[in-house]
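Quick one, tokens below:
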């Protein structure tokens, strides 16, 4: 089983900064991509940023220039540095990982897992 643990959500002042972290563990053969999504009250979950194993990144237009996604392939972790936070950034942030799980002996399977969510609150 592959599991994710998120941390870093907090209450922050408008214009402030916050860093979210996500660690993947379990029977992981490879990770193809990691990303962050968020869901505000009454809204659908939306993509914030993704990063592939090769380092290619993709950001939502609303966070470009303010957020930075990074990963450590050796540790199976992904971070989201959030700067210049706005009220519209208030949401529960979820880590997402896609890859391959298993072993040579037991076989391999693709997987997609989600973190438990961490709350980011922006106040003025």
């Amino acid at each position: 089983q592959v599991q994710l643990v998120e941390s870093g959500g907090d209450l922050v002042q408008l214009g402030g900064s916050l860093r979210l972290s996500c660690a993947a563990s379990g029977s992981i053969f490879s990770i193809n991509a990691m990303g962050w999504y968020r869901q505000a009250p009454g809204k659908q979950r939306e993509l914030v940023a993704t990063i592939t194993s090769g380092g290619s990144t993709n950001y939502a237009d609303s966070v470009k220039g303010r957020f930075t996604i990074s990963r450590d392939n050796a540790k199976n972790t992904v971070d989201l540095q959030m700067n210049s936070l706005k009220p519209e950034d208030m949401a529960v942030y979820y880590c997402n990982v896609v890859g391959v799980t298993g072993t040579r002996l037991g076989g391999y399977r693709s997987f997609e897992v989600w973190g438990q969510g961490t709350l980011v609150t922006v106040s003025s």
